[in-house]
Structures are given as structure tokens and as C-alpha cells.
Amino acid sequence: MPELMIYQSKGEGELFVEQFLQQLTPIASDEVTTTVTIDANQTFQEMDGFGASFTDSSAYLINQVLDNEQRTDLMSKLFDPEDGIGLSVLRNPMGASDYARDLYSYDDLPEHETDMELTQFTISHDEEDIIPLLQKALELNPEIKLMASPWSAPGWMKTSGSMIAGELKKEYYQAYADYFVRYIQAYASHGLVTHAVTPQNEPLFEPMHYPSMLMLAEPQSDFIRNYLKPNFVRNNIDTKILCYDHNWDRPDYPLTVLEGAQEEVDGVAWHWYGGNATAQTEVHQVFSNKEVHFTEGSGGEWIPPFEQAFSNVIRTGIDILRNYSKSFVLWNMALDEHNGPTVPGFGQSTCRGIVQINQQTKELTYTLDYYALAHFSKFIRPKAVRIDSTSSQDLIRSVAFRNTDQSIAIVLFNDAEKAENVAVNLQGTDMLTFRLESKSALSIKINNNISDISVS
């Protein structure tokens, strides 16, 4: 057996975060095994990467509550590909979301005033915490791609007159398209390139206790086709436009948008709060030239930690990747001991951050989401291409990629209620056999030299 590097999370709540060398116990040839076969000749999507969001709340906690030493160590553990888990996609709110300390857009006005020329536009709010953290993240990992999504247009553009609920008024479609251009240009002035935007976060959800904006499929198609994309072209902006940005249970929405604005849309963004990841493939089969992205999924108190919650992130992450997604992005990078801060009037939050930062004690805790993301992001690097992986037993879940250095990364999860013996075969050759505990994740990296295998 080869000597293996272990970096493993187990479903019983034990987190092995130290890397060490260990011999795996050989499995007798007559023992029943589940075979996972990797075929590098069958290829699928190219990865952008894995990540989360520097919401206003997350950025405040990391930049203002942590001390310099804590912040430096955390940023390294999040973004450094060698010393950390190498997160490479950041999807941030354009203005306030539910996880912000107050309501704000980039062009707030007194009631009944308008600003068609956006003379009051400013990203000064983001310059305090969010932009410095984005810049530091890019220093640690230059391969990071930035995405942006608004929870609401400025209130004066909407039927509600507020960032809470309402729809975008038709007469402000051009001003809103200009708003996106100003945001992209302002961020670019700080050395931050916006890789992709969506016109609206969760456009079919209109909560009354945090920023939101209803945007049905036909209006979104109209806005993208006749205002947003032409504005990008006029201003020489090559930022990608992703439609939808909502749950798997309404694939009809992106299908409608793509039918009406196919040439102007680069892909579809998905969330996991309803439906099944197979919706990604359903739309991909109709519009195979459009990118698939998973842009938001939060863990929280609705699934008990550790095993159930950890298993859910790993299991669902594998499904997301097997259904053509180029990204796997969770929600808040950091929340406090009360799962906040949240906007005034939000009530009790049940979401979980990638890390928890206690505002009273300043204690920093890495949550199960950090370790779940690590199983993907540590070895599946940007521009990796998904390759075929099949398992002889459905409860041994797998996904595999070939990195640009030609190394092969495989993520496995035992969803069975008992330990299973597993054999991983690459191109028909027995590479490795091992015992995989119930509800445990294992990530394997096979380098150019086939005998050089590391397991995470």
C-alpha cells in the first residue's frame, strides 16, 4: 500500500485537521467492496471554484471584531491554496442583504426624490470592511473570481418606494442598468474585477423583513436583453450575466429568461432551499452552451449538527457538481454567536457561517461548513475539469476532477449507515482500497506520478 496523507472529517463529529502520514489497513481480496471507477476520458464542466460571501455582517465581524493576528490567520486559512483551503469564488451582495447591520443601497435618497443620473452613487460603505477583505483575499489567491447580486434596487426605483419588497418600475430599467455599470467600474477602481452578476437575488421571494425585490421571469428577460447587456457593451464591460439566482424548484424561470434573452445571458445561478440539484441538468440539457453556477446555500439550525448537517453539505455538494455546476458557494463567511448581525427587524436568525466570531469573547470557531468546503476546495482547483466517476453502490457518492497540473481529485462520501470497503479504479487499474466509515468524507488526490497518492 502507498503511504497516504490524511486530512479527514468524520460524520461522528471528529475533525482531523492536522496532516500526518499513515498506512491504511489493507482489505482482504475476498472482502466485498464498492468499486468507484474513474474515467478521465469523459469530461464535463470546468470549475471556477468554491467559496462564500463577505456580507456586510461577515465583513464587519472579520475586519473589526477580530484582532490583526486572528484576521491574518483566518484569511490565510480561507484563501491560501497551500496553508488554507484555497477558496476561489466570492459572491457578494450589492448593497444590504438580510445579513447587514442596516438597510443601504449605493444610491439612497430622501423619500420622493430620484437620481436618474446616479449623481449620488457611492460604494463608500463597502470601502470600510468589504473591499479591504476582498483585496486581501486576492493577494492570497489571485485566482479568485468575484460575483455580485443585489437584494434590492435603491428604494426610489421601486413600486414600494423602499428596499423592502416591491418591483422595479419600468421607467427605471435604464437607471438600474447604469447602477450595475457604476458598481462594476467603482470596484474596478479598487483593483477588483467583477466576474459575474445576477440581476436579482431570489427574484420570486418577497419577504417583508429584509431587502428584497420581486422580478418575474419576463421582466428579467426584458431587463437583461434590452438594458443590462447593451449597457455592458456600450461601456466595454465583459462581466458575465447569470439569470435566476433562486431555488431548484422553479426551472421554468431560467428556461423562460433564456428563451427570451439567450444571446445576452451567460448562465444560470441556483440556490438549494427548494427542489433538487437535477434541475441544473434539466436546464443544461436545453441550453447546453450556458454556464451552471451554484451561488447560495446556507447551513443552519434546521439541520442538527454535526453528522446530519455535515453530511448534508457534502452530499449536496457532490450532487451540485455532478449536475454541471462550475461553482459551489455557501452563504455567510462569518456570523456571530447569535447568527448575526442581521438587519433591524429581522428577528432570530438560524443560519450558520463558515466561521463563528463571538462578539463578546472574540473567540473564532471554524464550523462544519469550513471542513466540508475543504474537502472540495483543497484539491479541486480553479480550471479543473470534471471527469466521469461511477460507483457500484449508490450510497457511496463520488465526484472527480482533473486539475490543470493533470492531478486527479476525487471526493467520496459514505452515505450508508455502516462502514463500507471501497476500491477506487482509474482507467481500469486498481489504485487504492480502503475502509470508509459511515457518514464520512474522503478526498483523494492522485498526482502525475500515479504512485503518489494523498488522501484528505
Task: Look up the CATH topology of the largest domain.
Answer: TIM Barrel
Outline: globular
Radius of gyration: 22 Å
Average pLDDT level: 92
Strand order of the largest sheet: 21-20-3-17-18-19-22-23
Give the helix tally: 10
Q: Class by helix and strand content?
A: alpha/beta
CATH superfamily of the largest domain: Glycosidases
| SS elements, strand count | 23
Distance between the termini: 16 Å
Mind summarizing the main beta sheet?
8 strands, mixed
Domain Glycosyl hydrolase family 30 beta sandwich: 384-441
Domain Glycosyl hydrolase family 30 TIM-barrel: 48-380
Protein name: Glycosyl hydrolase
GO molecular function: glucosylceramidase activity
How would you characterize the overall build of this protein?
The protein is 26% helix and 26% strand. The chain is α/β, with parallel strands linked by helices. It folds into two domains: 4-45 and 386-455, Immunoglobulin-like; 48-382, Glycosidases (TIM Barrel, Alpha-Beta Barrel). α2 crosses α4 and α9 (307-322) packs parallel to α10.
Describe the secondary-structure layout:
Layout: E1 4-6, E2 20-22, E3 34-46, E4 49-53, H1 56-65, H2 68-79, E5 89-93, H3 124-128, H4 130-140, E6 145-149, H5 173-188, E7 194-197, H6 217-234, E8 240-247, H7 252-261, E9 267-271, H8 278-286, E10 291-296, E11 299-300, H9 307-322, E12 327-332, E13 334-335, E14 351-352, E15 355-357, E16 364-366, H10 368-377, E17 385-391, E18 396-402, E19 408-414, E20 420-426, E21 429-436, E22 441-446, E23 453-455
Parallel strand pairs: 3-20, 4-5, 4-12, 5-6, 6-7, 7-8, 8-9, 9-10, 13-15
Antiparallel strand pairs: 1-2, 3-17, 11-14, 15-16, 17-18, 18-19, 19-22, 20-21, 22-23
Helix pairs in contact: 2-4, 5-6, 6-7, 9-10
